[in-house]
């Protein structure tokens, strides 16, 4: 059974169709990059995977749990699917440690001592342990995003979803966040990542999904996407040309 199974997902905002019959499956340990032009439905698709965006047609099964099943407890489900957003979504009035322990205590029911131990373990891992008593506003964007990744990991997720995790960062901060993501990928974390960072895609992902206008136009190995460009969909070729021109 795949870790993430997306089956014929369609979604509308009123009369506007944002996703059209999207299907893909992601195996345990896969690192899948979702790319495409702005407005192509990438972020919407990734948000349907942890039920932040409802969908009207199809089904999504993550680690054997069906989102369509009315018995599925969505809050509990989300606690096992790590999500890292473009804008870090940290609580500004809480310290780094409090940001990392609150959901462990309230959602997972862990005691505070165990939650703090887990928080310290992951702060060490993302290189942020010296900042544990600071508030988010005292940290750079790159540091805040590393804290957000650590917070996700504290919940012992079965997979991690990243929605353009570097797009709000200054260029010199992008590397420090990507380094943490590379480390996670190397450790076998199942990851689905919406990003324009094609260097990261080439280096780390084993699959690449290309979307345009709410549809999945390409779903192939990363190697095929970059090396056999003549065989790709015309929209994907245009997108790649533009991205490579910028870099």
TrEMBL record:
Pfam families: ABC_tran
MF annotations from Gene Ontology: ABC-type amino acid transporter activity; ATP binding; ATP hydrolysis activity
Subcellular location: Cell inner membrane
Residue ranges that the Swiss-Prot or TrEMBL entry lists as coiled coil: none
Membrane topology annotation: Peripheral membrane protein
SUPFAM superfamilies the record matches: P-loop containing nucleoside triphosphate hydrolases
Keywords: Amino-acid transport, ATP-binding, Cell membrane, Membrane, Nucleotide-binding, Transport
UniProt xrefs under Gene3D superfamilies: P-loop containing nucleotide triphosphate hydrolases
Domain ABC transporter: residue ranges: 4-238
InterPro entries noted in UniProt: AAA+_ATPase, ABC_ATPase_HisP-typ, ABC_transporter-like_ATP-bd, ABC_transporter-like_CS, MetN_ABC_transporter-like, P-loop_NTPase
GO cellular component: plasma membrane
Family: Belongs to the ABC transporter superfamily.
Name the UniProt record assigns to this protein: L-glutamate ABC transporter ATP-binding protein /L-aspartate ABC transporter ATP-binding protein
Organism: Acinetobacter boissieri
